[in-house]
Amino acid sequence: MKEASFRVYGYRWIVLLVFMCVVAVNQLCWITFASITSRATEYYEVSDLSIGLLSMSFMIVYIFVCIPASWAIDTYGIRVGVGIGAALTGLFGLMRGLVAESYALVLVAQVGIAIGQPFINNAVTKVAARWFPLQERATASGLGTLAMYLGMAAGLALTPFLTDRFDIPGMLVAYGMVAMAALVVFSLLARERPPTPPCPPGADDRSLVFDGLKQTLRRKDFVLLMMVFFIGLGMFNAVTTWIEDVVAPRGFSSNQAGLAGGLMIVGGVAGALIVPSLSDRARRRVPFIVVTFAGATMGLAGIAFAESYWLLLASAFVMGFGLLSAGPIGFQYGAEAAYPAPEGTSNGLLLLMGQISGIAFIFAMDGLKDTGTGSMTVPLIGLIVLMALGLLISTRLRESALIKGDACR
After folding, report:
1. Strand ranges (E), 322-379
2. CB of 215 within 8 A of CB of 350?
3. Which of 38, 78, 195, 327 has a CA-to-CA distance to 345 between 20 and 30 Å?
4. Are 116 and 66 in contact (CB under 8 A)?
């Protein structure tokens, strides 16, 4: 396909697909224990919070590894940066299965996988920018982010059933084999860049990493976007971590909790397939961020108060469709608003916000739950209020000059 003085290549879809495989497997490893919290506490003879720490470790590690990972991605590129993450996920994912009977060793392996996460997730917009023209980048970012949702959906929905059949060690071995397979596929098929860039020479030049970091933090729109991610992504991390504890006091089982969490991700998959492509066609980002964030707020309210299972499932789908379709548009908007800061830097800062808030929200939900019934209604109401604040902040965003212009068009 030839456009003006530059070309885009069909192999871009292969690169995106193998990247998506690595992303999905890493997220599957993150969310593994969320829908079997009670069973894991019995198996390892530890507290709910200790099982929550297996997921929360990803957020803690992310705070320390985010900037170095973004630097590696922006300095050495996709194959090295993402390759580090894929290797850590594969090796420690397999280790997790081999030492599955020991909580302490599983936690060590989980931390190893967590170190790999920012090397993978921070590269979403870098892959899009390196291989795709501007009018396809929200779509490419959407598909890259979609892989996160697919991995989470698999972890939430499949883990209870695999645990029923193979117990926790067998389930972890299966996931470890999948992680190694993803590493092999990425190593064989991933490419750093196309023979020629997907946009005119110089049209997408980026500044050095640390210069870009300073530039990014001076952009009002990007700072506002960081606030939106702080609230939205933090809420999502907390709710998915405690999904069983959120619904159990209302009589829902762990399998029902897993299916509700899985349907939340299914909604996100649908949103990530539909909404970013509409954004690309409209060459607008902000209206889509506002509308999807509003939908996510309504879905969260349903999850907080639903007494019937069908209403819980519908609310989970609505929240997932809204919040998780806002994610890829937000990542791409951030890359455009932060221009010429490197894509890995802008992407990493947005994810960092969600990891920091996720830790705070996870502890808050555990600390504020009713000690008698285990109900999390009070912290969920707090999250709904924060989501309404995030929605208000999103209305203050302005369209970036890059999406309104013709660079890399």
Report:
1. none
2. no
3. 195
4. no
**Residue appearing with tokens 């967590």:** 114
Phi, then psi, of 21 in degrees rounded to 5 = -60, -45
- Of 187, 174, 172, nearest to 87 by C-alpha is 187
Q: Would you tell me the crossing angle of helices 309-337 and 286-305 to the nearest 10 degrees? A: 150
The total number of residues shown for the chain amounts to: 409
The answer to whether the beta carbons of residues 20 and 235 sit under 8 Å apart is no
Q: What residue spans define the domains of the chain?
A: 8-192+207-397
Q: Tell me the CATH architecture of domain 8-192+207-397.
A: Up-down Bundle (1.20)
Q: Tally Cβ neighbours within 10 Å of residue 47.
A: 11
**Strands (DSSP E) found in 114-260:** none
- pLDDT by residue for the chain (409 residues), tens only, comes to 444 456 777 899 999 999 999 999 999 999 898 778 888 999 999 988 898 889 888 888 988 998 889 888 888 889 999 999 999 999 999 999 999 999 999 999 999 999 999 999 888 878 888 888 877 777 787 788 778 878 887 887 788 889 999 999 999 999 999 999 999 999 999 998 887 776 655 445 444 455 556 666 777 888 899 999 999 989 988 888 788 888 888 888 877 887 888 788 788 888 878 888 888 888 888 999 999 999 999 999 999 998 899 999 999 999 989 988 887 788 888 878 877 666 667 777 888 888 889 888 988 988 888 878 888 889 999 999 999 999 999 999 988 766 555 444 4
d(CA 263, CA 249): 20
**Among candidates 271, 395, 363, which has minimal Cα distance to 52?**
363
8 A C-beta contact, residue 79 and residue 16: no
Kindly state the DSSP code that residue 122 receives in the 8-state scheme.
T
